[in-house]
Amino acid sequence: MLHGKIDLNLFLILVAVYQERSITAAGKKLHLSQPAVSHALSRLRVKYQDPLFVRHGRKMLPTARCQTIMPRVLSSVSELESTLHNIGDFDVHQYQREMKFGFRDILESLFFPELATDLLTNTPNITVNSRQVSRIDMEFALESQELDIVIDVLSPTSADIHHTLICDEHFSLICRKDHPILSDLTLANYIKANHALVSFKDSAVNTVDMALAKHGVARSFALKCEHYFAATSVISRCDMLLTMPNAYARLLKQQMPVEIVPLPFEVPVLPVHMYWHKQAVHDPLNSWMRTKLLNIAKRVIPLPHIASNPLS
Fold it and tell me: What is the pLDDT of residue 302?
């Protein structure tokens, strides 16, 4: 039974800190002061007998206990919020619509095999149109309804854009089978090797190279391109190394003779968020699709930090 003296608003603050990874950002999102958010967290820490979040640089990272409880917290908050909207009679089969996504090719490869198959089998009235969108143009594309949903790394947006964490992207080392580094995986040998780099025109600062800079070292690149598939094809035939998102690396390993191993140094996770415009909050089809994408993410990106269902 829920204790009568528990303030349910504390869970809204917990969700905001979990999504924003920042007490300050959570306060701005909820229109609360930083001390108010800190005080709420202190009360929850007493109740759970756990710090819930630990500071890592400028971010507040969830503890193991926090990661364990958050799926249920997020789901419960979403269920409560759904009671405010008249969506009980929603029937997806009543809609004939093309859903427009802003996905990069790596995300298309991860999400679309399951999504497209499911739609074709169960809801052929819903079709998909996907294209890449720069982070600069993302907000306008959502506002103008050129796109319904965007999934990309965490980026600053206005209050008109809603978003939720869909996963934390972890990085791994990928190389050809029998690569010499597999028998002696050290930071020194990693730096000695030639590397392939996959980057996009509007990419943010490279988190891998920032992590290396903390060790006072840098990689040398023999290849720079825009597609992981092409880079993986190259490194499967030579001694170049490729550092890439773990989920997509596992997918490529099914198609090419490569090995995936942990990096010999720590790289911060890269938060990946799903974005939609405030005008789509109560669009039942958009909400249905957001839920579907979150559920697919749990299956195709089985990583420790998967968001549950905070979709409004």
Answer: 59
**Considering the domain boundaries, does residue 202 fall inside one?**
yes
**Number of structural domains the chain divides into:** 3
Mean pLDDT, rounded, of the chain: 87
pLDDT digits (tens, 9 = 90+) for 44-91: 999 899 999 998 888 888 888 888 888 888 878 777 766 665 555 678
Smallest CA-to-CA distance from 55 within 7, 99, 22, 14 is with: 22
Unique residue bearing structure tokens 């993986």: 232
pLDDT digits (tens, 9 = 90+) for 7-29: 788 888 998 898 888 999 888 88
pLDDT at 85: 57
Report if residue 307 sits inside a domain.
Answer: no
Q: Both 63 and 207 in a single domain?
A: no
Task: Centre a 10 Å sphere on the Cβ of residue 135 and count the other Cβ atoms it contains.
Answer: 18
